[in-house]
Amino acid sequence: MRWMPGFVMLSVIWGASFALIKIAVEAGVPPLWVAFWRCFFGALALLAVCALRRERLPRDRTVWGHALVVAALLNAVPFTFLAYGETLVSSVLAGVWNATTPLTTLVFVILMVPQERPTARRLLGLLVGFAGVLVVLGIWQGVDGAPVAGSLACLAATTCYGAGFAYTRRFYSAREGSAAALSAVQIVCATAQLAVFAPLGGGGPSWPGVPAAAALVVLGAVGTGLAYILNLRVIRSAGSTVAATVTYVTPVWSTSLGVTLLGEPLGWNVVAGGVLVIAGVFLSRTDRAAPGVLSGSRHAASRDPERTPGHPVSRRRGLR
Description:
Low-confidence stretches: 287-320
Number of strands: 0
Radius of gyration: 18 Å
Structural class: mainly alpha
Shape: globular
Order of helices and strands: HHHHHHHHHHHHH
Helix content: over 70%
Largest sheet: none
Distance between the termini: 25 Å
Mean pLDDT: 80
């Protein structure tokens, strides 16, 4: 059980990311800039790790081409959606929505990976998870207003994660390079993409104050950078399947921190819907598919973890 302390810390880090995003957006940081700084500090952390390990970044143009797609699907776009969503909904609700990532991943894996086939258990899991989504939304209350728009933004983020994990599994995870190097390439690409769009959609950067700036540094360097190293250690010690179950724990931390530190409300439908979502994730798992579906990795991840690229929300997985 040497992996347990790292597993718990990883769940805390990724669970806390929703509260950190909330602090930033409430300080007036535009969603595009939240996403940019998150990737920027994450890239610095991963590049520092590669430098310390003396691991070179891949030079193959094909790797960088696929990395651009992965970066858009797993970082630039969903990070922006998630930050925008948290301008309208609580970090508690955002954390619950993030728990749907394995379900969206399963949908895209079935569509994009030929060897994956839908089974009765998987389909039941998707239906249960979808029911949980409707309960969290409070569908009986109607679908009007800003909270629903924020929820839909968070769901758009998890949909991007699902597509990104499936794309990663099919086109990126087995490319030449260590896991840390491939992850660094991915986050560097995301930083470059956001460096173009953030000034266009969010204006120029501005100083948000010490608490928000600190939140962004921690969110990027720890939650989007160093957490991957911690995740890799858990994979090495316990395997990909165990590491992927962090998905079940992160909503607990995001909810606890949102309620206790930020004073956010917790409705009964959020709790009930979250339980249904996690039950759907559990039902959609199979022994053969669990590592790939929930962590965004290849089935070989537990045998060769150094060749599996990490992603900051992919092993909640996500999530993010």
